[in-house]
Amino acid sequence: MNGKFKREISLLDLFLIGLGAIFGSAWLFAVSNVASMAGPAGWISWLIAGLIILVLGIVYAELGSSLPRAGGIIRYPVYSHGPLVGYMISFITIIAYTSLIALEVVAVRQYATFWWPSLTIEGSDSPTLFGWFVQFILLAAFFFLNYRGIKAFVKFNTLLSFVKYIVPILIIVILFMHFNEANFTIHGFAPFGSFGIQSAISAGGVIFAYLGLHPIVAAASEVKNPKKTIPVALILTIIVSTVIYLLLQLSFIGSIPTNMLTNGWGDIHQEFSLPFKDIAIILGLGWLANLVALDAIISPGGNGNIYMSTTSRLIYAWAKNRTFFKKFASINNKTGVPQASLFLTFIMSVFWTLPFPSWNTLVNVCSVALILSYAIAPVSAGALRKNAKHVERPYRVRGMKMVAPLAFIFAAFIVYWAGWKTVSWILGVQFLMFLFYCASKKKVPVQDVSFKQQVKSVWWMLGFYLGMMIVSYLGSFGGIGLLKNPYDLVSVGAIALLSFIWSQYTALPKAIIDYDEVEEEMNSDQMNIADRNRKIGS
């Protein structure tokens, strides 16, 4: 059924979707991981990551307001560099997001074990058969809630959002009442140096916590007045979430009983595997521990629901790119939901629960996969300034020539900090997907872009991946340690900058924007006559 998306999402709705996507399971687990890696300096990891995401968010604000498309994050690279680049990004983005949904229900199950020990195998993080069935029921609930339409989804998310943010704010207030400033100097402010601060950003779950911007852009086709709403929602979400995360980390570090720090910070993540629940019990605040456990079901559950909606839009967008999943480019006319894409999202998210993973097992891989999909935004934004000059930009980033490459370099740092083990296999899989595309080229429509041009436009990406793998292997983050700090970061920055410049020269001569969707907008009552004339003229 070839229906249309319904524009029913307001600024408040979109802000709560973004904030809801950021405050899922990460705030419940990450603070103790960060403390073990960076010690009292862990708050610096949150600040650095927040600034990086803000720069990326500013770039997304221009893209989302100028080209409001469902699943736009994996359509922009197609517009700027062609189907092959779009395919490479689409694959890793969809894998990341379907596993994210699974990760959120895993978090719900792990915290729910506080009340129902039978959900988790004793002595491990893996679920029992009953625990896995609970995870499946949650995924099914997300599926049916989204199946009913965007209006039902938005109402549920708004109600859930106001409930789940009360607990983090309450935790901050209560823990600051038990604050001990001596904890920030007992073994030195940064006991693991800059290495620990950098490691915490990728492997500690910090960047994973922030990666909630995609749902805002993915829902662009359903937003009221997207040209103004999307930039405001993006930037507001990043600023508010950064402040809350900083306060959560500081309050956690300051409220740990000082006698538990005798042996240093390295084992804090084991002492506080469920940090806010565990510290509430140690401080004799049983009521707060129960409240945290309850919110630990609500927060990741709400997040999983958001990502179920987001991922279905991403699969729809991949189908609109007309490479693979072509049969999923349809929308139910009654509900305005891409139901076929939603069903595939549900199946893939169930698959990710089959290996019985723990939260910590998946988070590092998800972080790298997600930041790679974020990194394409500055590349596309820079290229579209050249090959799509006619596109109106209601929110135009000043100094894009500086902002875009800087955002790409920041993203490269995060990938590098994840370590050789993670970087090698994720980027290695990307090379395999390139070979698979080449082998299937006769079955893939060229979309007015020759296969030769597609390959030309992807070389920069393969060069970037290869360079990152080499530096990661030689570097100090899981590599052989030949490249020491700061030479490793200088090398990563140089590779990223050269790759970005290369990407701008190999972009398509003229962007291939899907004007079929523009015509759908023109037929809606959301557009006035002036808008119609402008788009027809372009």
Description of the molecule:
55% of the residues are buried. The longest helix is centred in the middle third of the chain and has 35 residues, at 286-320. The model is unreliable at 515-538 (pLDDT under 50). The chain has a single domain (11-523), classed as Amino acid/polyamine transporter I (Up-down Bundle), CATH 1.20.1740. Helices cover 69% and strands 0% of the residues. With 538 residues, the chain is mainly α. Helix 2 packs across helix 12 (226-255), helix 14 (275-282) runs antiparallel to helix 15 (286-320) and helix 19 packs antiparallel against helix 20 (451-474).
Biggest pleated sheet: none
Query: What is the end-to-end distance?
Result: 29 Å
| Mean pLDDT across all amino acids | 81
Number of strands: 0
List the total number of helices: 23
